[in-house]
Amino acid sequence: MIIFLFIFFFSGMMVFFFNFNLLLINLLSIEFMMMSVLMLIYLYLMNYNFELFFLMIFLMFMVCEGVVGLSLLISMIRILGNFNLMNLNFLKL
To answer: Which of 28, 30, 44, 47 is most exposed, with the fewest beta carbons within 10 Å of its own?
Structure first.
């Protein structure tokens, strides 16, 4: 199970590093990596009978990271009309 989660994490990392054109694909790969880390933390905490409160804190940071990414995506679409990462230089004031 843990090996599959590491494979999921590294496949998300490969998508993040090798597909740098679209912001939406990069945001989805970051969320994919965070979900695999969340499952790894869950398995670790359940294996050693620790409290699961840390999962709620980690899940809260995942949601905040997703909201910031989506707000950046929406602002890029409103300002530039597309969400290519190559146009990110035009957001400088």
So the answer is: 47
